[in-house]
Amino acid sequence: MAAGKASRALALVGNAAPLAEKGTSMTKSAAQQHRRRVSQWRKAGAAVEAAGLPMTVAICITWSACEAADRNDGNILGLPENERVNVVWDRMRRLAAEFGAEAWIAARAPEHDREKGLHLHVGARIPAAAHLRLIGLIERLTGAPADKVYTAPATVIHRGRKCKGVMAHGQLGAWMIQRNLRAGTGGTEGLMRYLRKAPKAAETSAQFRLSQDMLRIARAHG
Q1: Which DSSP state fits 201?
Q2: Is the pLDDT score of 30 beyond 60?
Q3: Which of 65, 118, 150, 204 could form a disulfide with 1 if both were Cys (CB 3.0 to 4.6 A apart)?
């Protein structure tokens, strides 16, 4: 995985990215989809904050780095990208439910860019009691063992970039899990601004998605 910019998606940030990489342009259809996503995701982020159900974690998985890591048994790297994304999404949903989550509050944003290739961002509401299990789940699915697990959310300098709320990160930068330190005080809306940015360069085979519970809460919120 390339250094420098390769760590940018690992930081929990609130600023939306440009619509396309320098030297590229979005198709009319992609631009329309992006505008709809911006509107829908803005409303959904505000709705779950207002309902007292903010997102608590942010995850980034870089598939090329996972493939270069130690490849623990039980990983999903043999699956096509869209199936990998679906498995991560479903296993996280089950974990949240197992630990008593009242709703599956989550958004996913698969991306492709020149530095990292295919990678995945997920923002979700995962009960605090499940956070260690979440780390183990991401280790198992990606095949990349944890490089560091922190006893409390830490500020980490990762390839020259300051990343806050870091709970754990994988070997070779394969994945990072961060706690949303501003959950309940606008942190979900900030995370959603980052997640809803337009895909860069080549499109991925996986889909941007909001959970059904998040959509339901957004509709009820008006």
Answers
A1: S
A2: yes
A3: 65
